[in-house]
Amino acid sequence: MRPLRVAHFSTQTGWRGGEQQLAWLARGLQAAGHSCLVVCHRDGEMLKRAPGMGLSAVGVPIRGEVGIRAVRESAAALREFRPDMVHLHDAHAVLVGSLAAKLSRSPAVVASRRVDFRIHSRWKYTWGIDRVLAISAAVRSVLVECGLDPARIAVVPSGVDLSRFESLPDRAEARRGLGVADDELAVGMVAALTDHKGHRYLLEGWPAVLARHPRARLLLAGRGELEGELRAQAAQLGIAETVRFMGFCGDIPGMLAALDLFVLSSHLEGLCTSLMDAMAAQLPVVATEAGGIPEVVDPGRTGLLVGARDSAALGAAIVAMLDDSAGRARMGRAGREKALAEFGCERMVERTVMVYGQVLAAKGLL
């Protein structure tokens, strides 16, 4: 395939999984000889971080779902860049980016869908969009249920930078850095403190874990609007001394190196790269059967799966894992093997380029 010019749209102010996926994709495309431009929120983390990642970025004033100025400035950036492909990376970017693409007469547009929430407007993902990239089969199923044409949906799983886990920090040193004692069992979760991540179900199940393993400690990395509510819940349950709210964690490999078990309690989940990170770090996992999670975790081989919103089952699964150190080690090794074979961001880049090529070829543009 000839070198392509790809414009990426992100409207988020913060930095979460979707923004990281965009960055890895754009860097991977550039490493393969393609050219990229990131159009993003002028007050967001993407614009701040792009130069350090070797990415060209243009900031536009995003206000709400769509704004005339944002569309106008985005269209101007596209006219100057002249992309072969416009890639929209979040739900808010879909409307702004598709309008800008129309105004600038950009030839092709794709949109990523990273969550398994139902869409409220089928039109939003069909007007001006040539293909939707779902990050899991579960997300694809939701889109089809909402009325999108299956032929217009491609499954392109998220990927992670496996090089971060080639040499993990020393376990003892990592535990000391997090204040975890030698005789404590560290269970961790990395996720924004939002409703769909299901932290409250994990907290509800935690007393049962402590009844069996009183030296267990729960480390929650992430920020979000529910932090105050979750702290209050932990206090009400009498478990606050065993639960640590860590806020934003800039050293995920360092945190994972300190853990005995990784947990994910989501009741909605597109795929979850935090699980991929944990498995790459050779950690066994306990997670729910929500969304695309069963596409990542092999039950009984790399971890245990329980029903979503089932606090008792979640607590029981954590207890079972903490009871079985040999089983944890075996599942951790199997998880790392799967991560190395399937989760690298290089595969995500290759699959995305394949979709770009299919869309452009169908339009006679290759």
A few lines on this structure:
The protein has 13 helices and 13 strands. It is an alpha/beta fold. Helix 1 packs across helix 13 (345-362), helix 3 (68-81) packs across helix 4 and helix 10 crosses helix 12.
What key phrases describe this protein's structure?
366 residues, Rossmann fold, 2 domains, seven-stranded parallel beta sheet, six-stranded parallel beta sheet, 13 helices
CATH fold node name of the largest domain: Rossmann fold
Proportion of helical residues: 40-55%
The CATH H-level superfamily of the largest domain is Glycogen Phosphorylase B
Low-pLDDT stretches are: none
Terminal CA distance reads 8 Å
Globular, elongated, flat, extended or rod-shaped: what is the shape?
elongated
String of helices and strands: EHEHEHEHEEHEHEHEHEHEHEEHHH
Helix count from the secondary structure assignment: 13
Largest sheet: 7 strands, parallel
CATH architecture heading of the largest domain: 3-Layer(aba) Sandwich
Can you describe what's shown?
- By secondary structure, the protein is α/β, with parallel strands linked by helices.
- Helix content is 41%, strand content 17%.
- It has 13 helices and 13 strands.
- The chain has helices spanning 17-31, 45-49, 68-81, 91-103, 137-145, 171-177, 199-212, 227-237, 252-257, 273-280, 311-323, 325-342, 345-362, and strands spanning 5-10, 35-41, 57-60, 85-88, 109-113, 131-134, 153-155, 185-190, 216-221, 243-247, 261-264, 285-288, 303-306.
- Strand 6, helix 5 and strand 7 form a beta-alpha-beta unit.
- The longest helix has 18 residues, at 325-342.
- The model has no long low-confidence stretch (mean pLDDT 95).
